[in-house]
Amino acid sequence: MKEGIHPEYRKVVFHDTSIDHYFVVGSTVQTKETIEYEGETYPYVTIEVSSESHPFFTGKQRVAQQQGRVAKFKKRFGQFS
């Protein structure tokens, strides 16, 4: 690897504001904000959605779609059973 062309890789605290969840991940994101987290100072980034709050990862969206599909199927073919 060439020296001086890669961004700095470091641990960063991300804050999911929709559910007030904090997590530390290695990243090259540039930020001027810092936060004290678990006794250490980290760069700080706020985000609106993460895997902790997104419906796809929590399973809430999928269940709602399945219930709609089952109800539609029963309405359409329920008379034959």
TrEMBL record:
Xref: HAMAP family: Ribosomal_bL31_2 (MF_00502)
UniProt lineage: Bacteria, Pseudomonadati, Pseudomonadota, Gammaproteobacteria, Vibrionales
Transmembrane annotation, as ranges: none
Xref: Pfam families: Ribosomal_L31
Family: Belongs to the bacterial ribosomal protein bL31 family. Type B subfamily.
Record carries keyword Flavoprotein: no
Gene3D superfamilies attached to this UniProt entry: Ribosomal protein L31 (4.10.830.30)
GO cellular component: ribonucleoprotein complex; ribosome
An MF annotation (GO) of this entry: structural constituent of ribosome
SUPFAM superfamilies: L28p-like
Keywords assigned: Ribonucleoprotein, Ribosomal protein
Subunit structure: Part of the 50S ribosomal subunit.
Classification via InterPro entries: Ribosomal_bL28/bL31-like_sf (IPR034704), Ribosomal_bL31 (IPR002150), Ribosomal_bL31_B (IPR027493), Ribosomal_bL31_sf (IPR042105)
Protein name: Large ribosomal subunit protein bL31B
PROSITE patterns assigned: RIBOSOMAL_L31 (PS01143)
Single GO biological process annotation from the record: translation
